[in-house]
Specification:
- This protein has 300 residues and is an alpha/beta fold.
- The protein has a domain of 122 residues: Ribonuclease H-like superfamily/Ribonuclease H (Nucleotidyltransferase, domain 5).
- The protein contains nine helices and eight strands.
- It has a five-stranded mixed sheet with strand order 6-5-4-7-8, with helices on both faces.
- A hairpin with a 4-residue loop joins strand 5 and strand 6.
- It is elongated, with a radius of gyration of 23 Å.
């Protein structure tokens, strides 16, 4: 299985200006030869000068950025695409300060672009098979108790399918009313779930899952196939990325960073460049934003 690479040379050649970025979005959303819902002709749309729109000779208009995080953004599209490239070609992400240095924009602009793109990395993944569940406390060093129950940190609960995808969510606590919805919405019924000995996981068999656990308090970390080493490896990657790249992340925005690292982890073995995956997330076709009053048909 050969993984296709997307280098900086490829990026510069493919996206030399804003027009090339808009053309890419138009083709992804509406197709190479888009059909006009008014006149039913194909391949007739042309780029409008000085506007992020395409227009058919009959007057029907479409905006490829409509409904996306790029809509009405004063930032050049090529800058958005370059930040996407930066976020998807690094192992541990990119800080807003680095984006500021690379683009020469304000920190506020760089911060907003990064956060908007992290929102697009959120994905609904239904896990199945053998699943590991564990929790992590994110928030740097604090005096007092370490590990589960540490003060001043944000709790994240995560699940990982062995040799598959991962999903994680920031939660206020580890009580049953927080863990139960997370498991039921992200794991297919009947899956085998491995956890540690925490009391909050005891409901799992009653909810239609298989369950086994290891007792970390007794220094039992592996018993045959029962362990949580895969999800703990994901936590290590998340914590290294935050500490090494971002230094510190507030609990308010931690979910966005968690989604980013989950997205990157889930694409690790894909033959399609991660940049292409993120671009697809931003360009799902759904509607027209600019049209004549008499033409109110959705663009399909």
């Amino acid at each position: 299985m050969k993984i296709t690479k997307f280098t900086i040379k490829d990026f510069i050649k493919r996206f030399p200006n804003d027009e090339s970025c808009l053309a890419e979005l138009f083709e992804l959303r509406f197709g190479h030869k888009a059909k006009c819902p008014r006149c039913n002709r194909r391949g007739m749309f042309k780029k409008r000068l000085s506007r992020r729109q395409y227009v058919c000779p009959c007057g029907f208009e479409v905006a490829p950025t409509a409904g996306t995080i790029l809509h009405k953004s004063p930032t050049p599209l090529r800058d958005w695409f370059f930040v996407m490239y930066m976020l998807t070609t690094t192992r541990n992400g990119v800080s807003a300060k680095e984006v500021q240095r690379q683009l020469g924009c304000t920190y506020k602009t760089a911060w907003r672009m990064c956060h908007q793109l992290r929102k697009a990395m959120d994905s609904n993944t239904l896990l199945n098979g053998v699943i590991e569940i564990d929790d992590a406390y994110i928030g740097g060093k604090h005096k007092g108790r370490r590990g589960r129950g540490a003060a001043g940190k944000t709790i994240v609960v995560g699940a990982i399918q062995r040799y598959g995808s991962a999903v994680a969510k920031v939660v206020p606590n580890l009580k049953r009313d927080q863990i139960k919805p997370f498991i039921n919405s992200n794991i297919k019924k009947g899956a085998m779930i491995y956890t540690d000995e925490m009391m909050g996981y005891r409901f799992i068999p009653k909810d239609g899952y298989q369950h086994d656990s290891v007792t970390h308090a007794a220094k039992e970390y592996v018993r045959g196939k029962v362990h949580t080493n895969s999800i703990e490896g994901f936590w290590s990657h998340l914590k290294r990325g935050i500490k090494g790249t971002h230094i510190w992340v507030s609990g308010k925005h931690l979910q966005k960073y968690t989604d980013e690292f989950s997205f990157r982890y889930n694409q690790r073995a894909s033959t399609i460049p991660m940049f292409e995956r993120l671009l697809l997330h931003l360009s799902k076709p759904y509607a027209v934003v600019s049209q004549k009053p008499e033409a109110k048909t959705l663009f399909s």
